[in-house]
Amino acid sequence: MVYLAFLLFFNLIPCFPSSSHAQNANLNLPLRAVNLGNWLVTEGWMQPSRFDGIVNKDLLDGTQVQFLSTRLNKYLCAESGGGTIIVANRASASGWETFRLWRVNASYFNFRVFFKQFVGLGNQGVVQAVLNGPTNSATFEIVRRNGDPNKVRLRASNGLFLQAQSETRVTADYRGSSWDDWDPSVFRMTIVNTLQGEYQITNGYGPDRAPQVMQVHWNSYITEQDFNFMSSNGLDAVRVPVGWWIAQDPNPPRPFVGGSSRALDNAFTWAEKYGMKVIIDLHAVKDSQNGNDHSGTRDGFQEWGDSNIGETVAVIEYLAARYGGRLGLAAIELMNEPLAPGATFDALAKYYRAGYDAVRKHTDAYVILSARLGPADPQEFFSLASSMNRVVIDVHNYNLFSDMFSSMSVQQNIDYIYNQRASDLGRLISANGPRVFVGEWTGEFGRNDASTEDYKRFARAQLDVYGPATFGWAYWTYKCVYNHWSLKWMIENNYINLN
Ligand SMILES: *[C@@H]1O[C@H](CO)[C@@H](O)[C@H](O)[C@H]1NC(C)=O
Question: Which domain holds residue 413?
Answer without folding.
Answer: 2-50+196-492
